[in-house]
Structures are given as structure tokens and as C-alpha cells.
Amino acid sequence: MNEVNQLPVADDGLLHTPKEKHCLLKVIRRQLEACEVDLEQPVLVVGGSQEDMEILTACGFSRIVLSNLRTTGMALDVEEIALPDDSYPVVFAHAVLHHCRCPQKAVGEMVRVSQKHAFFLEPNNSWALRTLVRFGYSFPYELAAVAGNGYDRGGMRNGPIPNYIYRWMEESVRASVFAYHPERQFQVRAYPYWDFYVSEEDLLSRRESRVASLAQKLGPRLLITLLHFAQTILNVLPLSRSQGNKIFCAISKGQLQPWIEIRDGQYCLKRRSGHGDAAEGKRNEVAHG
What we know:
Layout: H1 22-34, E1 43-45, H2 50-58, E2 64-68, E3 74-75, E4 88-94, H3 103-113, E5 114-123, H4 127-134, H5 143-147, H6 170-180, E6 184-193, H7 200-205, H8 211-218, H9 220-234, H10 238-241, E7 246-256, E8 260-263, E9 266-269, H11 275-288
Parallel strand pairs: 1-2, 1-4, 2-3, 4-5
Antiparallel strand pairs: 5-7, 6-7, 8-9
Helix pairs in contact: 3-6, 8-9
């Protein structure tokens, strides 16, 4: 008789099926290829988990360093990463930045400790998502994440306060990176798309929105099937895809700005030709009256 691997059943009677990763992996692989990332090089994962290990392993990485704010491994705060500049070739974050007190600073820190690339996946800031929030099908704070973690973690900075869901768009990524690192040039790629990367439990736990009641009426399994069908259709055309609920951002380091030079180990504005001599002569004239 053949053995059958049965899915675990929770106390609520739900089958704990794994989240569908096909769309997520497809997006990550495509963007890694576009950035010509060497998968043999180590990647630092901030806010990392076993799920991130599985995702990046499936994408071809073999040297994965997990870190988190509270962890038995490498404990790192993404808003103030205790590592030197250019520590890792690649830095990666998945659904982490919206838990930060200052997501913009977290992006700046990721870029600082990366040698070549920083990647992150976060909620997208689109009119479609703002419309869903307005009509109650999404909620701007993550109450369910804290409730699902015993009411003592899962929110802002993995604490008990439900975090505001900060949503990104390409211009906000550019502004954050260039403001944090004005001395350097960067290439920023942003890929918005639809991906309902959820489980049955995720849907039923979102009681602050209409999603939970909709899942109860239709059944969470059927609702997930419908959502996956919708995302397949919406991702076909660039216009509808641009209104997606997720965004993959790739930040690649370039050269220093043409007006920047390094003097005494510090980034400085290049002195204009003859400017220093003229200024010194003027100071001498004033000193001698």
C-alpha cells in the first residue's frame, strides 16, 4: 500500500497548505538575471527566516546568511546594521521594511552594507491598493500579524504594536537611496506585480477588513484559487500589473558622483580648478587691509 503524505490539520479544521511560491520565485529569478547576480556569492538576509532560506535556495543561492532583530544566529537591526560598508555582495529583505520605524533608513542601511546589490520585496503603492483600503478590503495596519503571534510580537520592529504598512513606488525608492547616499550613483529597478501570497489562515485572520468575512462566505481555499486566477490575468498586461499589491526593488551600486572625490578617507566635493587659490588670495587681502 502506497504511503500518503497528509497535510497537517489545525484545531480550526483547516488544511495547512503551503503558500504558492510560483509567482514569487518567477519574479525574483527574473530580476536576479536582469542584474546579472553571481549566485555563488554570499547573500545577507535581513529580517530573515527559514522561509527566506527556502526561497533563496530555490533561486539558486548557496551561501545564505540569515540575520534578524531577535535571533539565535546573527542579530542585526536593519535600521542600524552593525556591519562595515560593503560587507556583502548582495543584501536581501522580504516583507521586512514595513515593520521598521523608518523604512527609508532601513533601505539606506541595506545599500550601505552591500557591495553590489540590495533587493527587497514590499507592498506596492498604487491606486488599486489605495482603493482596496478605502473600501475595507485591506487595512493600513497589521493587526493580524500581532494577534497571530500571541499579541507580543509581529508588529513594528517585531514588537506588540501593529505596524503601519508602508507602501513603495519607484520614485520613493530612488528618493530614499539618493538622500541616504548622495555621494554615489545607483541604478534602481522597480517591478510591481500581483501576488496573493497568502494561506487560508492568513485570510481568516484579517478580521479588521472585509477579507475574513469574504473568506468565510466563499471558503478560504476557493478564495485563494480565485485570487491566484485573478493575479495570472492581471500580470499579463503592464498597465494592470503596475497596479499590483507587491513590488520587487533592485538597487545596484554605481560609481561616485562626478563631483565627488575622496580626501583623507572621506567623501568630499571636488575642488574647482583655481577656486582654492582664489579664495586663499582673497583671505590674504582682507587680512592685510
